[in-house]
Amino acid sequence: MGCEIIEKVRTLPSDPVQALAVLPLGQSAQKERQWLQDTLAWLKSAPPEKRGARFQRLAEEIREQAALREKFQEIWVKAFAARVYAEAGLPEATSLASEFLTRVKRRVLPQLEDALDLYAALQTAELDRDDAQWFAGLGADAVAPWRDFLAASDGDFPVAVRLLALRAAAIGLSRALMKVMPHQYETESPFFDLVEAAGVFAKCPADSSARRRFQEIVLRCRVSAGISHARMEEQGVSSDLVFRLDLVIAQLDRIEVLLRVISGQEDGRAFGCMLIRAFAGERSVHILLRNSVNRVARQIVTHTGKSGEHYIAGSRREWFLMGCGALGAGGITAFTAMFKYLFAAMALAPLWIGVAHSLNYTLSFVLMQFLGWRLASKMPSMTAAALCDAMEKDDGMHAEIKLVAAIARTQTIVTVGNLLGAIPLAVLIDLFLQWLDGNPFLSPETARHGLASMHLLRSFTIPFAALTGCFLWLSSLFAGWTANWMVIHRFPAAIAQSRRIRAVLGEEAAVELGEAVDRHFSGVAGYICLGLLLGLLPFMSVFAGVPLEVRHITLASASLAYAVSALAWSGPLPWREVWWAACGLLATGLLNFSVSFALGLWLAVRARNLDTSGRKTLLRELWNEFRRHPAAFLWRQ
């Protein structure tokens, strides 16, 4: 049967005028659709400079023969141009995931339309922006004959308006969007009256009062949608909510365009260019994700920036307290490195060793979170978003310079504190274990392997340290996403008001639990993500045949201290290897910080659509400030 269909389609002549002359109307919708598709392909096959003449000749030949003109107009009416007006360039689905899958399927798999449809014909034509530019450049002589042909289908515009109103009202009144709409009840929303007003207008488009009332309701719907966007910025952003709200706004925009076309305020040629550009962008998966995900990324970066403000010392007292907390975090890391060696020596399968490492890292990081102690490696990706907040201010680079100096001071004291906490305590732990049983914590073979693994040139320290910087950035991103999720679902307030939690803990304890969740939940989520990435992923990569390792500056410093301490008591210390390992440790710190900061800054700039043309000015001003007051970037405030 499929072969018979293909044969029937192929019987049409290649010239569209000849094909239209022999086309039997009312017998095969597929042949009629194929004629539309072949005609579009015939037009596109001509060079742009000759396409206008071909376009005009086609119209003139159809106009000269009454039978051809009647056939064309019948095909056009049956092709339901209203769908093109109402759907071109607008998402087909009402959720981001469904629309993404639909566009991927449309790009990869051949599609079959079962009915005559102009929309399907235009989709198969694979229109692009060059086609829109060509159409915009057509002269009045080339366009005039087509206006006469299509005048009989002016009724498609009110139909398209009603279709758009129905779909916009259905989404605008959905429960998901009503949560962010500035209306308590659906009957208070202008979307509740949108369909009725569109129906009254469509019955009599020339009625000025019906048109004016419809325009007022469309405007109120747009205002409600705009307020909903602002409310989402405060209440948290969901990619699905953003997609639906943007779809409603796009549908309202299309209604306004159609109203201008109906009233003659919009030129038909400009409207046709808009439709062609819409079809060109309709196939783009990149545009879909950019429009829907960018707002979510901005909100996540905003929450990450708010968290990053806690990683910046604003006064001398905060700077001192962060340094003391960094000492404690380094001390915890010394024990974390000790358990890392213990777990690595166990006779377990790689998966369970990875699980043990993940638990080791996660528990250490979570303990630091609750104690308020900071890891230097976690700071750059968090403070990058805070720096972008300052870049949005227009105050002559003063805010940026002040913030960069504060970030540098804080990063310096926390890094020094981490190292002073991790290295000496690791040496003390090793000395204590030697005092207990007479042997260092690490065997000479394990210690030498530790030095070799940190060698700057003879190991993969540099790529592994850069990869760890990516992990640090991903963990901060996950922390920002968790904070956004908490805001959307009002998680802390839900805990404080939960009847079950209050029945178990009491009202005051429930409120305190909600406050603790508000302070620590996103940070704990980020540290859990980091623990899994550092501990489990390297061992999972073994199964793929791509062994990966992590190089975390504080963990590496503690591990190196254990190795040097063990070798110092078992014979001559290999100073050459120690110095190369120390260089590897320095490179690890630089790459951890720079990669995570660069990725955090890149995402923040992209999410906020910041103008980065002033980067050279910022760097110049920073250099001048550093030459004048270098201490302000290290300790003095």
CATH superfamily placement of the largest domain: Glycerol uptake facilitator protein
Structural class: mainly alpha
How would you sum up the major sheet?
Answer: none
Assembly annotation: single chain
The CATH architecture of the largest domain comes to Up-down Bundle
- The domain count comes to 2
The first-level CATH class of the largest domain is given as: Mainly Alpha
**Average pLDDT across residues?**
81
Number of E-state strands: 0
Separation of the first and last Cα atoms: 83 Å
Q: What is the percentage of strand-forming residues?
A: under 5%
What is the overall number of helices?
30
> If you compute it from the alpha carbons, what radius of gyration comes out, rounded to the nearest whole angstrom?
33 Å
Return the CATH topology of the largest domain. Glycerol uptake facilitator protein
Overall morphology: elongated
Q: Which parts are unreliable, with pLDDT below 50 for 5 consecutive residues or more? A: 1-10
Encode the helix/strand succession as letters: HHHHHHHHHHHHHHHHHHHHHHHHHHHHHH
Helix content: over 70%
Architecture blueprint of SSEs:
Layout lengths: L1 H9 L5 H7 L6 H17 L2 H17 L1 H13 L2 H7 L8 H13 L9 H7 L4 H8 L3 H11 L5 H17 L2 H4 L12 H13 L4 H28 L3 H25 L4 H15 L2 H25 L6 H29 L5 H22 L7 H13 L6 H40 L6 H10 L7 H29 L1 H7 L1 H7 L1 H29 L1 H5 L11 H16 L6 H34 L6 H14 L9
Helix pairs in contact: 3-8, 4-5, 4-10, 6-11, 7-17, 9-16, 11-13, 11-15, 13-14, 14-15, 15-17, 17-20, 17-23, 17-29, 18-19, 18-21, 18-28, 19-26, 20-21, 20-29, 21-28, 22-28, 23-26, 23-29, 24-26, 25-26, 28-29
